[in-house]
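Summary of Year 1 activities. Much of the first year was spent building the evaluation harness for sequence design. The harness presents a backbone, in tokenized form, and records the residue chosen at every position. We chose the following record to illustrate the format because it has been used consistently in internal testing since the harness was completed.
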């Protein structure tokens, strides 16, 4: 028996399953003692409303510059909760592992999940593991669910954008998608391109503390990039939006790769960026507060909500013209998260 690889027997529910859980998975993710390993986690009810989300991660490759599928799974779920103004509290983790996957790689993925959860101050409290035959998956897929608490009465919704709102982003766009693509294709793009994968809940807390009820929308622009996300919000809120191309921060290395490959960085995925729609009187204060946070140093106002033309998004280009911004059509970069 090869002890370095995951076998079908590790998903049987028998002795091998218990060994994998007791020797690797549970110590890495939660450290729950055997006496506490039941079929569900019992959680104390938090104050305020509950926020709940679920997500799945199939990124290829599973290790990429700036992150892994493990850290990405935690960050993505934490950020979905944070975009509702919630404080993330608990995560569940479902692992779908392909037979033959390396135990050493599994440990790396699990350790990255635990480190990301600890940094975000969220607990992994329950989970499940399945093993499928060779060729029926691609190394490892992860499904997560998250619970958070909303301890305020601020209405933060995609349908809450209002004319006059300023649109703020916390940094450069397209980093994650290009980093993953470079890792997948073996492109030598230097060291300037790394995934921006990060948990944004502490940055959101700083924004809420500064803006209060003048914060109207939060959204993390993952698949489809900022262009698709902003179009979604324009439609959801039935407002028009104007973006300013010169004000949108883009890493020069990312811009160069996109230019070579014919990609628009506005449609490339992000995993550590947020868009905040804030009343104009609070916008500059919010930007200043964001710049004090490690994940908001490059925060910038990139556009505003306008009257008329509900659902319409226009870009004022760097050459002086305007163009319509639509949602991403098709799949620009598959298996990106």
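For this record, the design step produced the sequence shown next.
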């Amino acid at each position: 028996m090869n002890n370095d690889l995951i076998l079908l027997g590790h998903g049987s529910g028998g002795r091998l399953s218990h060994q994998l859980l007791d020797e690797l998975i549970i110590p890495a993710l939660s450290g729950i003692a055997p006496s506490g390993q039941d079929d569900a986690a019992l959680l104390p009810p938090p104050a305020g409303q509950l926020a709940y989300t679920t997500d799945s991660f199939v990124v290829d490759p599973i290790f990429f510059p700036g992150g892994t599928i493990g850290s990405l799974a935690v960050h993505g779920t934490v950020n979905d909760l944070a975009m509702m103004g919630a404080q993330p509290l608990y995560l569940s983790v479902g692992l779908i592992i392909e037979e033959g996957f390396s135990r050493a790689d599994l440990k790396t993925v699990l350790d990255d999940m635990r480190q990301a959860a600890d940094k975000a101050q969220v607990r992994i409290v329950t989970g499940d593991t399945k093993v499928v035959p060779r060729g029926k998956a691609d190394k490892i897929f992860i499904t997560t669910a998250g619970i958070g608490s909303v301890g305020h009465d601020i209405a933060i919704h995609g349908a809450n954008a209002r004319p006059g709102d300023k649109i703020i982003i916390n940094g450069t766009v397209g980093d994650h998608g290009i980093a993953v693509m470079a890792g997948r294709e073996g492109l030598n793009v230097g060291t300037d391109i790394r995934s921006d994968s990060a948990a944004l809940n502490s940055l959101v807390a700083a924004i809420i503390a500064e803006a209060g009820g003048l914060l109207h929308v939060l959204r993390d622009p993952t698949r489809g990039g900022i262009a698709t996300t902003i179009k979604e919000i324009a439609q959801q809120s039935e407002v028009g939006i104007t973006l300013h191309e010169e004000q949108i921060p883009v890493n020069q290395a990312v811009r160069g790769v996109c230019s070579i490959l014919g990609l628009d960085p506005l449609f490339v995925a992000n995993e550590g960026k947020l868009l905040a729609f804030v009343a104009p009187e609070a916008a500059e204060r919010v930007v200043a507060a964001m710049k004090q946070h490690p994940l908001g140093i490059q925060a910038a106002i990139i556009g505003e909500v306008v009257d008329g033309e509900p659902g319409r998004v226009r870009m004022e280009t760097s050459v002086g013209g305007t163009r319509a911004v639509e949602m991403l059509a098709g799949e620009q970069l598959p298996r990106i998260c």
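Residues 103-120 form the longest helix (18 residues). Quantitative recovery figures across the full test set are reported in Table 2.
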